Amino acid sequence: MFIHKKQSSFLLFFVFGAVALGIIISVGILVTMLFSHDRQRDVAPDSQAPSVDIGQDIQAEDNQNTQATSEELVTQYRESISRIVSDTTQSSQSIDNILASVEDTLLAVRVPKDMQEKHLNVVLSVTRLRAQTQQSPAEMRDSVVSLIQSLIAN
Q1: CA 27 to CA 6: how far, in whole Å?
Q2: CA dist 17 to 9, 20, 27, 29, 99, Å?
Q3: Share of the chain above pLDDT 90, in %
Q4: What is the pTM of this model?
Q5: Which residue of 11, 30, 122, 127 is 20 to 30 Å from 51, comparing CA positions?
Q6: Do both 84 and 37 map to the same domain?
Q7: Containing domain of residue 112, as a range?
Q8: pLDDT for 108-151, tens place per residue?
């Protein structure tokens, strides 16, 4: 009775430690595999999949546009604005569609530096005009055309 040893929970701690160590090692291996897989995909793409650089076309187009002189840019800008005016006056769409299309087109046009502030004011005016509902469609169309024509008038 007095010689009997006190039972220790050594076996319990050993099992718990082994399970914890196994979990830590498996998480480490999974993280390593995850990051090495992404790195390999970035470095060496599949030979079967075609390699397409989406930004390459945009950069090439942007390089062509940046090579234009300021006079050419002003000429292109005036042509774009004239096209917007003619499209707006000839359009038979609803005024909401016209205003949306004018706003989108004005935001897509490349603007010379000296005309940027005026262009921004016209875009904001068109946006404000879209929010107004008091004017008739004909009056709104006339005001949009006059706003856009003010961009190319000197």
Answers
A1: 37
A2: 12, 5, 15, 18, 70
A3: 9
A4: 0.52
A5: 30
A6: no
A7: 69-152
A8: 888 888 888 998 898 888 888 888 777 788 888 888 888 888 88
